[in-house]
Every structure is written in structure tokens, then in C-alpha cells.
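Researcher: Next sequence.
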Amino acid sequence: MHRAVRPPGAGGSCQVWWAALAGLCAILVAPLFVVDVPPLLDYPNHLGRIFVLASLPRDTVLARFYAPHWSVIPNLALDIVGPPLLHLLPVNVAGRLLVAAAVLLPVLGTVAYHSALGGRWWSFGAGLIAYNNCQLYGFLNFEISLGLALLFAASWMRWREARPVRAIVAAAIGAPVLFVCHMMGLIFFAALIGSAELYIVYRGVSAGSKVAIRTAAERGAILVLVLFIPGLLYALSALEQLHGDALFGMADKVGHFLAVFVNYDLRLDLTAAAVTIWLPVLLVLLHRGRMPGPAGIALVLLTVAYIASPYAWKGTSGLDMRFAVMIAFMLFAGFLPVRLTFWPGVAVAVVLATIFTVRMGLLITVWATHAHDLRDLRTVLAQVQPGQTVYVLSAGPDEAPAYWKANPSWRRLSNGVRTDTHLGALVLLEHRAFWPGEFDLPAQQPIRTLEPFNSLAHRTGLPRDRKAAIASDLCGYDYLLMTEADAMPRLPPSRFRLVDAQGFAALYAITECAVR
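Model: Next structure:
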């Protein structure tokens, strides 16, 4: 196996290296200090579920709406770690700690894996994609599992030959942990350690070793041992029993990969993508960089998986996109610049640092603006009492084209994906009232909605636009919350009495629940 050089902390520049890593982490978590509910698409909904799990069964109001529904689910990182945190910390503090973990773990895992290969500074470039599309979509379980997979793989790379028992035990413990966090993290880990073992077997075969077959069998058996418990858990999970047609989008593969770099400015995002992809290629062509065997094999496997995987399957959307995120991190974790002289090295560092700084500055600015929307939302929700029910509608691009053409960037990403559609979860989080959008799929979340609220949510569906809401049967709801209220005319007073309107949000009491 490729032998790692001495660790990054060795030598006279260890303090500089550690200080730079600490500085990188500090910058990455800085946005979490400007707003207490970050504008990550699914995040408010996940936080709402954690809040419910932490409150049951003693909270009799929430117990009317929801009940725990624990089972073998490969998607539980937040649900296991979050509720204990909420017993110690305010909900929005605990939530931001979980977001910080999702942001930092992939970067720290990249640094650890890169170090195990003998690298040093290049991996810091992973900060450029710390706020990738999956992070901004609020796929926090996936992001946490991604970072843990890299950390566990780094321990495998360091110990597999020198301390094999330690490596195998750590992997055997890490694999079930990854399964519980998120299935895709386990797949990533299997690809990383499987590639390392495959590289050893390849070297044995190419050297003409007579024991190559036995080596392959032994190492394959160890991989089976490491992955046995997660395989058994998957067989017992609701996900394995879930059937559904896979949705492929082969024509969108390039776009899905570039979407990894989505932030809030398309030109800046494309620049980040170009640098991340083409800078390693350029260094290889100039014989100033290489991809060591284990990382190279992993990159090939992940690329094949990305091309072959569907966009959606078994209730999970963006499946291929998650492989794209893995590939992007591997461009920093597995690539090693070599023979770079001082000034070319400085030039590379300046380019990466400049793009990173501009992206982070833009993100912090956008998140600070999002705080104004939260203020409006909280103001109008002040009238909502525990146990009440609130329907949510929002202005879609078709209903308010001029509004969305003006592009309020704090409400959507550069690819047009909106990040505000689950803000209705604040009804649950801050008022212990019911809203119909809580995530409660039995194969993905350990919670179920009780009757009659489950039927109410299914009858009315997820938040709709204004036209659909006006024509809907809203019997069973006390209030209607309108977001993007500054983009739409008031609702008809014959059915809806305006309680309060504050820019982004408006709250209406439902006086006539059905259309006559």
C-alpha cells in the first residue's frame, strides 16, 4: 500500500498548519453566527422533527400530533444526536451545532484522508465546497456521513498495513455507525477502503506474486466482515422493502455535477467549478500532480456510480447528485500536488483562497438578509397558540414571475432552487402548533403523524400557491400562513381575515374553511 509520509503536524511548520486549519474552520462556521435559523432548504423541517422527538411524550400538545416510530432506518444522524442536545441547549443553538458538524466533518475528513496519502495543504481547498448544494439543500445526515466516511477511511489507510487489527476493528465499528447516519456515507466508505484493498491486490498481480489470489481472497473476506453488520441491518430496514421506480436523467448528468458548486451567484459558482475540476488536470498535465492508486481507483468507481445511478430511487431524490459531491471532495482528498516550486504554489493558494473568501462573504451577506424574513415571519406568528393548526402557502415562480425574476437571492440559490419552502416548520418549533409539511416517511424518519392530523395533511398536501389555496377545502385549519406575502395580493376577505402582515409573511384566520 502507498506509505504515508510523516503527518502534517511534523516539522517546523506544524503550528502554521494547525493554525491555518483552525482558521479555515472558524471561517466556515462564521455564517452560523449571523442567523439563528440558517436558510438550508430541509433544515427547519429536520429541526422540527428533532424538537418533537426531544419533547415526546411529556409534551401533551405535541403528543396529539406525533408519535415516535423507531425502526431500522439508514438516515438517523440528526435524530439520534439531536434530541439529547436539545435537553442541554436551546433548540436553535443545538440546531446550529448540528449544521456546524455537517459543514466541518467533510472538510476535516478530506484533510485526514489527504494526510494519510502523504498530502498536506491541498486538502484545505475543500473549504471551497463545504457549502455545496447538498449542504444548502439541508441534507445534513448525508453531509455528516460523508465526513465520517472520509475519517474512517483515513484511519484504514494509516493502519491497514502497520496495525491491521486496529484498522479492521475501527472499520467494523465505523461501518454500522455510517449505516445509521446515512446509507450513502456507508457506500462512500466501502468505495474508499475497497479501492485501497483492490490497489494492493493489483500491485501483487502486476508484480507476479504467486500469492495474489490468496491475498485477494483474504482481503475480500475482511471487507465482507467489515460490511456484514450494515448489510444485515439493510436487509431488516424499511428501505430495503420499499419499492419504487428509479427515475433516470442521463441528459442532466453534467448539470447535476456542476450543481455541486451551487451557491448564490452563478458566475462565481462556475468559476469555483472550473478551478476545482481543471486545476488538478492542469497540474497532472504539467507533471506537477498525481492521484495515488487507492484514491484513483475510488474516483473511477464513484464516477461510474454517478453515471449509472438514477436521480431518484426508493423515495430519495438527488441520488446521483450525492455521488457528484463525493467526487468533488475526492478532488481535494485524493489529489497530491508534487514538485511545486514556491511561486507556483503561492499562485495556486491565492486563487483558491480568493474564490473561497468571496463565496463565504457572499454567503454571510445572504444569510444576514435572510434574518429579516425570519423577523417578519416570527412577528406574524405571534398570535398562533399551542395546539392550533396552520396551513402554509407561498408564491411560486408561475404565480409571481416578476417577483422571482428580480431574484431575491436570499430565498433561492443560483440554480433557482428555493430555500424557503420549509420555513412553515417554525409554526411547530416556536409555537407547538401543527403544520402539514413535517417529514414523516416511515422508511426515512422515526416519527409518524397521528389522526386526524395525518389525514388532514394528506388531504391538503404540501404548501401550495395562492390560487390553489383559495380553492381548497381548509376545514381543520385555524390559520393560513402566507410566505412571500410581498409578492402576492391579499387573500379574499370572505374566507380569510388578515391577522397581521409584515413584508415577507402574512397570517390569516380562516373564517370560511370551504368554498361555497
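Model: The chain has two domains: 30-69+367-516, 105-340. Residues 75 and 149 are 14 Å apart (CA to CA).
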